[in-house]
Amino acid sequence: MDLTTLTYIAVGLSFALYIGIAIWAKASTTGEFYVAGSGVNPVVNGMATAADWMSAASFISMAGLIAFLGYGGSVYLMGWTGGYCLLAMLLAPYLRKYGKFTVPEFIGDRFYSRTARIVAVICLIFISFTYVAGQMRGVGIVFSRFLEVDLLTGLIVGMGIVFVYAVLGGMKGVTYTQVAQYCVLIVAYTVPAIFIAFQLTGNPIPQLAFGSTVNGTGEYMLDRLNQVVTELGFLEYTTTSKSTIDIFAITLALMVGTAGLPHVIVRFFTVPKVRDARSSAGWALVFIAILYTTAPAVGAMARLNLTETVQTGPVGSPDGNLVFEDRPEWMKRWESTGLLAFDDKNGDGRIQYYNDANAAFAAKAEQYGWKGNELKVDNDIMVLANPEIAQLPNWVIALVAAGGIAAALSTAAGLLLVISSSISHDLLKGTFTPDMTEKQELMTGRIAAAVAIGIAGYLGYNPPGFVAQVVAFAFGLAAASLFPVIIMGIFSKKVNREGAIAGMLTGLVFTMSYIITYKGVFITPLIANTADNWLFGISPEGIGAVGMLLNFIVAFAVSKITAEPPLHIQDMVEQIRIPKGAGAAVDH
């Protein structure tokens, strides 16, 4: 059976499963729409959280980042997994004990202020829309390649699917849909990795193959990879060009950003008891680790396969580069998406793939008659293209397509529900129209989700960067705005509403301005995005760590010169932290 037919079958069956679950688990109350009725088993919730968490950035883009950044890409692994330790210890049990629907609701009550709640909603919307732009781009990439449609058509189809199961099923439908999506995406990620690991090293376990010898050479995989990339002017795979401070800042921003992401936090409102919230975080980390420990091997194998496909002989030899007309079918298929391209700069009909930004190697390349790097490969295609490069069976390639779509759609649905609940529950019901009936609130939530899907589709079509980079920006915004105020709300009785509002606005505005200045989101960048121009040498991906510190400093400073929180608020803070909440959660 041909690849296109198999892909339609795999993706079609997975979509039928998701929509069927949404219809079965249709939300009939606001409690089911927002937090699945707070009755989800912690193991099930852990699996749903893993799917919610392992977005297109994790499935599609992270291994691609590692493939091209090498050791430097490890910051994403450390940051995105380390954040779950913070969630389990510092946030999940306390927020579940508080027992409300949304993060802005907690912030509004804890800081006794409608304004604080509105500011939290604004922060949440900026974070969620930035994050969802990456997911929708992931959906478009998968559809444009495997269903052989253009990016816009792929986005529209993906938006339609999300609309059905997010708007109809709410959090209840999304939770059980995400369990199915986790099963799909983890099988789709690990099966090709096992095939390729065995093909390259004879060891079927990717995590072990990563440190094994390559078949027929006797060289360890990383040694072999270092050799082939340095021969083409790239940095050694096991080194990084990032500075220590930038690595630290990116890791910190991703960690605290994880703990501050509203669509992840809200998952811990869906379990019955406080102890279940911590248990859910632990299970989520187990399920996530299966993919995250596989990703470094996938990235390394993809880079090795790509480089050896193009570089068929010794660097500089007349027959050392792949003849363009003899390129494999997978390259032709990806060329149609625009995410892989060949520009024959010296007219010899061969593909010169090397680092022409390396001045030392560029001089050597001129001796070979090369006029510049001729191959453009988008980071985001490496995981999807890897099974094709390795010439795996078509059913494996079709499975990867279904997994990539599952990863992107699961996170997109969670984010869109957070946006929906913030608008309907926090802004309208909680602030502007408190007399709204439950039925009206439920309808408003669905309308808000539908509008959010439209905006998300536009952002997916016009994203400010590749998938993992866009997602990193969202984490920076979460780290700088919501994480500090939640932590202070739980652990400090002295931070008041003025301090919380000032801190959130400072962190959000600073971080957003920095990203826009260097990345030019919807505008031309104001300053060249180079290490020489960065503040303290910290890239836009890591600037959320600085925004977080500014948030803390401003919040404590403003609270110091303004009135203390009322006594009943200070008592509430004490009550939230009392350990006896291991039983049923109490609403305040």
Automatic annotation (TrEMBL):
Entry-linked PANTHER family: NA(+):SOLUTE SYMPORTER (SSF FAMILY), SODIUM/PROLINE SYMPORTER-RELATED
Keywords: Cell membrane, Ion transport, Membrane, Sodium, Sodium transport, Symport, Transmembrane, Transmembrane helix, Transport
Keyword set includes Nucleotidyltransferase: no
GO biological process: carboxylic acid transport; sodium ion transport
Record's bilayer topology term: Multi-pass membrane protein
CC terms in the record's Gene Ontology section: plasma membrane
Subcellular location, record wording: Membrane
UniProt cross-references to Pfam families, sorted A to Z: SSF
Database matches in NCBIfam families: Na_symport_lg
Entry annotated with the keyword ATP-binding: no
Protein name, UniProt field: Sodium:solute symporter
Annotated GO MF terms: symporter activity
InterPro entries: Na/Glc_symporter_sf (IPR038377), Na/solute_symporter (IPR001734), Na/solute_symporter_CS (IPR018212), Na/solute_symporter_VC_2705 (IPR019899), Sodium:Solute_Symporter (IPR050277)
